[in-house]
């Protein structure tokens, strides 16, 4: 994780890393999350997200203060479902949303914080997942914005 992501303070917005190829979906998702007070970091592929997490994977850094990952299935270099499963095997519990059409959708595992959404529903569903896992963050951000 880069230094910017590692230095999240209690007043810093939650961070969502995305690797979504479809520009319209990516833009709508970023807009929806920004309205909730999230900071969205866009990466071109799942591989680039894995690259961001390399120090954690190699146990050279603690788990990052990332609140959510959203990755295409398939994604060049590393599928969203592969990233989700790999993080779980390492004990990293950040929620992962895999954006996949029905014909390539992997199994969903909400108990493991792994979600699967269809591309056309991502901009509506991902913010709901973000609110579910970070309700306290969203209200704190709203209070800070008013103050």
| Proportion in β-strands | 15-25%
Task: Give the tally of structural domains.
Answer: 1
Spatial sequence of strands, sheet with the most strands: 2-1-3-4-5
CATH topology: Rossmann fold
Q: Count every beta strand, where a strand is a DSSP E run of 2 or more residues.
A: 5
CATH architecture: 3-Layer(aba) Sandwich
Structural class: alpha/beta
Number of helices: 7
Task: Return the string of H and E elements.
Answer: HEHEHHEHEEHH
Radius of gyration: 14 Å
First-residue to last-residue Cα separation: 31 Å
* Biggest sheet features: 5 strands, parallel
CATH class: Alpha Beta
Low-confidence stretches: 1-8, 137-147
Keywords for this entry:
single chain, alpha/beta, disordered N terminus, Rossmann fold, disordered C terminus, 147 residues, five-stranded parallel sheet, 7 helices
